[in-house]
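Hello again, I could really use a second opinion on something today. For a while now I've been wondering how a particular protein folds. Please have a think about how the structure follows from the sequence. Here's the protein in full, and shout if anything looks odd to you:

***
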Amino acid sequence: MIRLANERDAEAILNIDNEITLSKATTKFFISSPSELSYDVNEVKEKIKTSLEKNNLFAVYERDGIVVGFLVFKRYTYNRLHHAGSMGMGIQEEYTNQGIGTQLIEYLIDWAKQQENLEKICLGVVSVNERAINVYKRLGFIEEGRQKNQIKYEDGTYSDDIVMAYMLN
């Protein structure tokens, strides 16, 4: 079930974010390194509260009453960019490959179509995250650009940062 996040979800969201950033299987999917993780539940609570106040989207996916995924969409605040915004998401590892990411993005697209003057959903995805790239493309996102070797990992290897977008009109 997908619903809007509330402050009581902060700990679960923080745990998901930290789990997937620390996991060997998924750590290279993120720009932030494990050493840059936040462990501040109040910071997440504030992000949820601010998101709701600014008419952005902060949604969670629940299974059997447990939050197992989340999606955040933040509209750009500059007047010339206000027709667009960026999204980010996270899903607990044990719940990946079950269509949860697809459902969260479809929820976002449906929500975005109801927002006044919103025309574009943007995202950045690390080039090694092929599973996510395939989902985004299947849902209609297009690659708009690529920053070569933009991400340098602790082991000295690199990944590209791919900029993708979904046009609502």
